[in-house]
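Q: what does this look like with magnesium ion bound?
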Amino acid sequence: MVKELPVVMIREIGYSYPNGTEALKNINLNIFKGELVGIMGKNGAGKTSLIRTLNGLIRPTYGTIYIDNENISSKSIATLSKKVGIIFQNPFHQLFANSVEEEIKFSLKSFNLGKEEIQSKTDRILREFNLEKYRNRSPLNLSGGESKKLAMASIICRDPEILVFDEPTLGQDAKEIDFFINLITSERKKGKTIIIITHNVEFAYEYLPRTILMADGQIIVDGPTKKVLNNEFLIKQTSLILPQIRQFNLVLQQNEFYEVEDVLTTNEMIDYLRNLIKHKSSNI
Ligand SMILES: Nc1ncnc2c1ncn2[C@@H]1O[C@H](COP(=O)(O)OP(=O)(O)O)[C@@H](O)[C@H]1O
Ligand SMILES: [Mg+2]
């Protein structure tokens, strides 16, 4: 069997902003089709700069990026944006139309679709994102959560093969986070590759199989999230906090429940506690 090549291959890239800030240094990264990957790290670590290289918004000062096995250095932002859809942290950096409906239609403009197809795609995406009732409203008059949803809808309607979200859960309420989780679950079922920048440790711990930690423009670790986020040394280095289940686990160990060391998830903790109670009651 031929081994599948990564959909994103980053080979030894670096980037300095025109003012001299070295935002990315010696970055190497492979991401395979269908993966769901988190990028975490302190503010200023280079997370946003890294994802901006994927659709040509910034071009590496050195090194090469391949998407679908093609060097992207000579490809335009317009071409790359059809493959890599980036949903930025601040929706107002990407929303500019006069109405919610126009925002989606504008986003579909570069695809050479007929008027009717644009309308039916627009109607469908507004329905999927519960934005139909705001169809004629200015994006400026949406709530924070709604504008974030519109920014997502305006990218997802273009059906890019790689989806990148910059801090999607920031400032979102529980219902909005649930919506987002359902969204990424359904996009993943369609085979999409998803990259999520987040500071939300509990979200990453539960939903993202792989996590990349960045610091000072570099990748300092890249591995299974349950390993990465349980590593106290790395967590301190990147100003994150340990997942709650790990904190609970450590308190139990301090209280001489040493055998709890390998318990990593809520479900495993429930099983562990259930066994403990069973064992205790059978000893009475
Ligand atoms: N447009 C810019 N011009 C100059 N420096 C920038 C610009 N954007 C970001 N930086 C700097 O690049 C570094 C990485 O920033 P960024 O990629 O935004 O980090 P993160 O997303 O992890 O918070 C920081 O030192 C930041 O101050
Ligand atoms: Mg950022």
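Residues 8-242 form a domain with the Rossmann fold fold (CATH 3.40.50.300). The pocket of adenosine-5'-diphosphate (ligand 1) is lined by residues 17, 19, 21, 23, 41, 43-49 (CB under 6 Å).
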